[in-house]
Amino acid sequence: MEKSLVDRIADIDDDRRQTSTRLRKAFQAHMDEVSLRFKGYRRTLIVLFILTSLLMMTLIWLWFSQSVEVKRLAQQSAMNSFIYAGLQTNQSDRRSMAELIRRVDEIERKLAQTTPQIDTEWPATSTQPSANALTRSIEALSMRVDAIEREFHSLDTSPVGDTGEIHDALPRDHFAGASIDTDVPERITSAREKPPATVPSAPEESSARQIPNDLPVAEISNPEMPDLDLQESRQRLEAKIAAARAQQDSNQSADQLPIDKLIDARLDRLENEYQRLLSQLDAPAVQSVRTSAAVSDDMNVEKLAPPVTGTAEQTQESAENIELDLTKIALQLIGFYDQNELLEFISAESMPSTVYVRRETYRGRPWFALIHSLYDNRQAATEAIAGLPDELSRLDIWLRQLPPGTTLERIELHKGN
Q: Which one of 110, 164, 348, 409 counts the least CB within 10 Å of its CB?
């Protein structure tokens, strides 16, 4: 009994130990499975984080690229709009000039059509007037010529309309009550071939201009004007019309700028604006040195000491201050804080006979900028860069715009052995 009880207790103890071992193994297996699962989740999260970061960086890059492209397109659109406006203005001017030529041709055609009317309404057998009546008639015709000239000058600003406006603008009231047709200057007859013997020769236009302006209007309008005087007046009128047309043609050729010139002018303005902004951002000198009048006078007469190079050749410099009258483009080579270093550089390098120095301040210290030469425009300065020696062309050359009134120090170089 006692033995069986001990065996039973031993069996229970063995079962407890086996159960405990199985529980530990099951827990360890569960922990390994959970750890492996979390490791997969961790890798997934890391990959997702990397992908999200790349996506955000791509979106930011695209946004910046789009903003830059939008600014570029806006500038290009503004430039195209300006050029298109200039082209439209040029085309409108051409149409206006073409319409003006058409109106002048129409006027000449109408004047030519009035010749038969004058032949029928002004018989060649009319009574010849006196010399005073002839001069008054010439004065009346001169007034009409002046009216036509004023009409030609007003065509540039007046809207294009019917060609009959020129005839309506003529001073017809000076010919009221007379039988002379409004287109008398167009009479073409053979009176020059057979001048009347009893009529004295018509005075010149200069004498006709001396007639007083207070004569009655009825005396100016003489229905018995000779054909000879009409022929001379018509020739003067045609000469003045031809001169007016020549003036209009010259104005047209001066006003019509080619498209290339408009584009070049716009590009020059953009280049000047770009250089101005660049000079504000990258200029090594931002403030001019304002010296007193006494110091300036001393500098005008100062002779710079001749620095000696490694060879037997010496360079002597004579300096004086100058003030620019016009805007110049400076070909600036280099700058120094020390004036002696500037003079040594001038002596050591191949320089022209005349160089310029601009005194400025940079970061609170004196700054001496060496200018190779001055030019009237940027194109000439750019072409001059190609002719510089190799040691100078390797420098950081700056094409700098100098406004009128800029003070420079001009140095004359005299080289000798």
A: 164
